[in-house]
Input
Amino acid sequence: MTAARIVAVGLLLPAVAGAACVLGFAPFYAWPVPIVALAAMFWVWSRSGSALQGTLSGFAFGLGYFLAGVSWVYVSLHDFGGMPLVLAAIATFLFCAFLAIFPAAAGWSIVRFGNASVSRRLMLAPAAMVGVEWLRGWVLTGFPWLGLGTSQAPGSPLAGYAPYVGTYGVSLAVAGAAALVAGFAATHAWSRARIWILAGFAVLFVLGGAARLHAWTIPAGAPVTVALLQGNVSQNLKWRDEVRAITLEAYRRMIFEANARIVVLPETALPAFLDQLPREYLKSLRDHARETGKDILLGTIEREFRGQGQDFDYVNSLVRITGERSESYRKRHLVPFGEYIPPGFKWVLAILKIPMSDFTSGAASQAVLRAGGIPFGVAICYEDLFGEEVIDALPEAQALVNVSNDAWFGQSLAADQHLQASQMRALETGRWMVRSTNTGVTAVIDSNGRVVKRLPWFTQGTLTAPITPMTGLTPYARWGNWAAMLLVLLLAVFALRPSKAGR
Output
């Protein structure tokens, strides 16, 4: 094979395939594309001449995947974090390159342990890809953004596996389908092998579609009307003194005008610590809640003072404001560099101009937040990417709420990709999910993962809709990621079993 062909097949094809995968995610929802793109990657791995080639091909795939899919990190670093253009571009590239190490590791293991057998490599490929995807969701507190399984929500038949084995299980189904496509392409003549491959492909999709017919959860009561507020406050202006009063008054007006039992405000909706808000302002909200019977869920920042001094910790919270008392959920899974600075990286603060970049995390186990008679499982910002953490609120939680501020990422793919993650959480748990965001996407998602109603991007408005509290447990809510990881392990063991010729 010539050097040009090695580059074209071993590097360019995987990079293009990786970038194409992003079309499977919101806002495109072209769910078959990741299957085809991953099949191309598996086909390349099945023909790699060495573990190094497999590693480089996997790295190229990952680089294309993440540069196309999460390069919106540049927007938060440069446009809103104040990092110089060149440094922001380098940092974004290095971040995507770090993420690309995971598919590179998959490529190395597939070629290294799959020997020279095409069939063995293709059997091992789904387990390796999902295994490193799980690692990516765990290493350094985890970054599970763009998990392959999420690309199938909500319309693909493969999404039917979500209530059983969660996102990683759906990722395994996607990778399995891709391996079958690659195997079909590797078999040049019609034979019994091709018939078995087609049958396996059909069974995978039929079973996924059939799995959607069974409802694991049922209504726990009558629908309750929820109002989700979207203030559309520019991130560049949010903390300026001249904007603060306008923002406070706009949200108060929207709360008072909301015709709903539950009113939800976005993450850090009001530009002040909770205890620094004007006393009369909070009193007016409590009086309104008591007089109208509303429950107000306010995204805000709480302070906890240490001892008698002026030192304090601050936490990212969702606070329930009623006529009587306040209760809160405190964010427990913080964003590295955005909400906390890892040890040894304090120097980053000298470059980034992000206010309050060192939050304190909430307790690992917290009570559900009740509003309108419904116990809610709460996720703040990207906490709803971690399905294994969202299910901690079950079975008590009868609905899910996510408050976020994706204004940090401008008019990029991030907000819609985040919405799709919420759709997957609804599918996994069989619960309705409501999302209140600063600039979008504010939406209501039903228990089947479908967006019932949403507000347009970058507009100020109130989204009002009824939601149905649900009870019952899906298999995923009982088992978490254990079932999917067991399937990954079994598939890897099967793929690596000694061949008859080697016995």
